[in-house]
Write a structure and sequence with these properties.
It comes from Arundo donax. The chain is built from three helices and no strands. It is mainly α. It has one domain.
């Protein structure tokens, strides 16, 4: 699921960069995108999120 999310993000980035022709604006967009990707990577690898997801999966399993 996470791989599909990042694949979709990369595809969206390609569409955005194709639409923008101004080089300085494009560079700024790349910088923002790199920052966003770093935040997403940190968020997905954080231990808090893993614990939260385990709790959610356990709750769902008990309700089934």
């Amino acid at each position: 699921m996470k791989d599909l999310f990042f694949l979709q993000m990369r595809f969206t980035k390609k569409i955005y960069t194709l639409k923008i022709s101004n080089s300085t604006h494009s560079k700024r967009l790349h910088d923002h995108w790199d920052t966003l990707m770093m935040i997403f990577l940190w968020y997905h690898s954080s231990p808090f999120l893993k614990v939260t997801m385990e709790n959610v999966e356990n709750e769902v399993a008990t309700w089934r």
